[in-house]
Design a protein that fits this description.
With about 260 residues, this protein is of the alpha+beta class. It has eleven helices and five strands. It has helices spanning about 5-10, 15-30, 60-70, 75-80, 90-95, 100-115, 145-180, 185-195, 200-205, 210-225, 230-240; strands spanning about 35-40, 50-55, 90, 115-125, 130-140. Strands 2-1-5-4-3 form a five-stranded antiparallel β-sheet.
Length: about 260
């Protein structure tokens, strides 16, 4: 069993939501669960995200494609039962204890045929009725799940959800902030040439201004993008659509202006 304390420390220190998911994936793999699917069962206004099955996952693409094509998210009894409980439960319990329709039985049977064995579901209730869910399974089976292990997995899942949503919120805020950034035409021009690897002195010659003027504009760019050097600024600008560096190669070399 992975240490919950170390898992909390590692996920809290993670740099991104993807890293948090990878840490969770590795922790569950040590328990025999190598298949993982994290879903937003309801809309999450707190994150600005809509409901979605498999927001983060490592289920096989064949199964996910089949699941979507058959619209199983509308009849899958596992996420449906998450509306009725806040406790973790096994898929076996769903099969043996609930009165399932033929379509619901088909979903569960085909999941087993896809080597999603010994399945577990962890409902996670958030603010304002938001519900997320973690589903996990073993491709080999024989995990020997018991009540104690189920409770420990639930603790891991809750910490994953808290750390993941915190990182996701931060990333969404950063994206929103960057989307609101306005670059001047000159700042965009300088960033485009920087993206082409041109030095400050070369950029000054290309656009017909002095070297200090280029530095002045770059410093303003760094402040707007919350970056401390040009490579980071270029990457953030490209990632958020503030510049399209492939256009630079089509530009003709500007005529230098008289200083």
């Amino acid at each position: 069993m992975p240490s919950l304390e170390r898992f909390i420390e590692a996920t809290n220190a993670a740099k991104s939501s993807e890293e948090v998911f990878l840490l969770f994936q590795n922790a569950l793999k040590k328990l025999g669960y190598d298949r993982l699917c994290y879903s937003l069962i309801t809309d999450h206004p707190s994150l600005g995200l809509e409901a979605g099955h498999g927001v983060m996952r490592n289920y096989s693409e064949d199964w996910m494609k089949h699941y979507v094509q058959k619209s199983y998210e509308k009849i899958d009894p596992v996420p449906k039962y998450c509306f009725s409980t806040n406790k973790p439960f096994t898929w076996e319990w769903v099969i043996n204890s609930l009165e399932l329709s033929n379509d619901e039985k088909t979903v569960m049977n085909e999941a087993q045929e896809a080597k999603l064995l010994d399945g577990i579901a962890i409902p996670i209730y958030g603010i304002n009725g938001e519900i997320a869910g973690v589903g996990m399974a073993s491709s080999a089976g024989q995990t020997g799940i018991n009540k104690d292990m189920l409770c420990k997995i639930r603790a891991l899942a809750f910490q994953f959800h808290l750390a993941y949503t915190e990182k996701e919120s931060q990333e969404q805020e950063q994206i929103q902030c960057l989307q609101n950034i306005q670059l001047t035409d000159r700042e965009r021009e300088i960033l485009l040439w920087a993206a082409e690897g041109k030095s400050d002195a070369t950029i000054a010659d290309l656009i017909g201004v002095s070297y200090p003027t280029v530095r002045f504009h770059l410093n303003n760019i760094y402040k707007k993008l919350d970056a401390n050097e040009r490579t980071f600024a270029v990457v953030k600008a490209i990632r958020n659509g503030l510049i399209l560096p492939n256009f630079v190669s089509a530009l003709e070399t500007p005529i230098k202006l008289v200083r």
